[in-house]
Structures are given as structure tokens and as C-alpha cells.
């Protein structure tokens, strides 16, 4: 048996609508256009801005992580804490470079400081001036090549290796005391992840 469908009732006699006023028609069209622009335009502009910011962020990260050799500026607080390199204040000519691989992670740091700053730095890693050895270049040729450091300028050069039990980092330190009031410090801090 086939069910019968309900039928629509015929509309009652309604008075016909008056023709639309041209001003009302223009206002309705403008409102419709505004809604369309807002629904399409705002997300499109947001998407364009977001894509541009994302692309710029990627370029910044690419430049940071593809850098070879020293980068002028201070290592981050996290890097200084992780590698135990307490760069003192005041310090000038600060530059750093970090390398990471599955075997060893290294932070290379150089800075120029005052006599008191050098003492503060050495105390911060657990050594003092008496542990420095004259003409002891403790930074390897390999590490010198990576950073471009050349310890051939007039010295005297002083060095020390601060060995610590894993996972604490080991620091190779070289200090140029050609100007005792403004020593130049070179550090390679390495840790095994």
C-alpha cells in the first residue's frame, strides 16, 4: 500500500506586498555585501598575516641554526646554565656558538671582562686563578678551527681544564692576559647528553 503524502494547503488570500523602496533595496544590498566581505575578507587577511609571520619565523630559525662560527651576542640563560658558563657582568665582545650531536654537545663562548669579572667567572665554575697554567692552550685544534680562534697573538696565555663528573659539563678555558685589566676569556664547555 502506498502512503499518501500530505498536501500543502493553499495560501489564504494575502494582500500583495508593495514594491520595494529603492533606498531599502540599496541598504539591503550594502548589508549583504558587508556580510560577505566580513565572512570572506577577515579570515583571508588573518590567514595572509599568519602565513607571513610563520614564514619570517622560519627564516629567523633557519639563520640561527645554519650559522657556522661564532654569533655575536650572549648565549641564552638556559645555555649558560646547562653548560655552566657564568659570563660575568660587565663583559664585552661576547660571542657564542653551540653544536649538538648524538655524542657530545658543546658551547663555545668568548668574552672580555675586568679582573674582578675574571675572578667571578672562575669562581662560578669552581676554580681560581691559581689553577690557571701559563702557556697551556687547553682548547683543541679542532675547536679552534670551528670557532676561528687563533691563540698566536701576544700573551701571556693561561689555561685550565675544569673536568667534572658526567652529566656536568667539562670546560676548557684559555685566558689572554696581555692586558691584565681587561682579560679575554675563551671557553669550550662540553657535555654528554
List the helices and strands and how they pair.
Elements lengths: L21 H44 L5 E2 L4 H6 L8 E10 L4 E9 L1 H11 L7 E2 L6 H7 L9 E6 L7 E7 L7 E8 L2
Antiparallel strand pairs: 1-2, 2-3, 3-7, 4-5, 5-6, 6-7
Question: Care to describe what's here?
Answer:
There is one protein chain. The chain is an alpha+beta fold. It has a domain at 71-191. The protein contains four helices and seven strands. It has helices at residues 22-65, 77-82, 115-125, 141-147, and strands at 71-72, 91-100, 105-113, 133-134, 157-162, 170-176, 184-191. It has a seven-stranded antiparallel β-sheet. The longest helix has 44 residues, at 22-65. The N and C termini lie far apart (80 Å). The mean pLDDT is 86.
What labels describe this entry?
single chain; 4 helices; alpha+beta
Radius of gyration: 35 Å
Please estimate the helix content.
25-40%
Number of helices: 4
Give the amount of beta strand, in percent.
15-25%
Query: Which class best fits the helix and strand makeup?
Result: alpha+beta
* Mean residue pLDDT: 86
Instruction: Give the spatial strand order of the biggest sheet.
Output: 1-2-3-7-6-5-4
E-strand count = 7
Largest sheet: 7 strands, antiparallel
SSE ordering:
HEHEEHEHEEE
Low-confidence stretches: none
Morphology call: rod-shaped
Give the N-to-C terminal Cα separation.
80 Å
How would you sum up this structure in a few lines?
With 193 residues, the chain is of the alpha+beta class.
Amino acid at each position: 500500500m502506498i502512503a499518501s503524502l500530505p498536501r500543502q494547503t493553499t495560501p489564504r488570500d494575502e494582500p500583495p506586498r508593495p514594491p520595494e523602496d529603492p533606498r531599502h533595496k540599496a541598504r539591503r544590498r550594502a548589508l549583504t555585501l558587508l556580510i560577505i566581505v566580513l565572512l570572506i575578507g577577515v579570515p583571508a587577511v588573518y590567514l595572509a598575516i599568519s602565513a607571513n609571520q610563520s614564514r619570517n619565523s622560519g627564516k629567523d630559525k633557519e639563520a640561527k641554526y645554519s650559522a657556522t662560527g661564532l654569533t655575536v651576542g650572549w648565549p641564552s640563560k638556559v645555555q649558560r646554565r646547562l653548560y655552566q658558563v657564568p659570563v660575568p657582568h660587565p663583559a664585552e665582545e661576547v660571542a657564542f656558538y653551540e653544536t649538538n650531536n648524538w655524542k657530545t654537545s658543546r658551547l663555545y663562548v668568548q668574552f672580555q671582562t675586568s679582573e674582578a669579572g675574571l675572578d667571578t667567572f672562575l669562581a662560578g665554575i669552581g676554580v681560581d686563578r691559581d689553577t690557571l697554567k701559563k702557556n697551556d692552550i687547553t682548547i683543541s685544534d679542532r675547536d679552534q678551527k670551528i670557532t676561528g680562534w687563533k691563540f698566536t697573538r701576544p700573551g701571556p696565555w693561561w689555561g685550565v681544564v675544569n673536568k667534572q663528573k658526567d652529566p656536568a659539563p667539562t670546560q676548557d678555558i684559555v685566558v689572554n692576559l696581555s692586558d691584565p685589566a681587561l682579560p679575554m676569556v675563551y671557553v669550550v664547555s662540553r657535555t654528554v647528553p
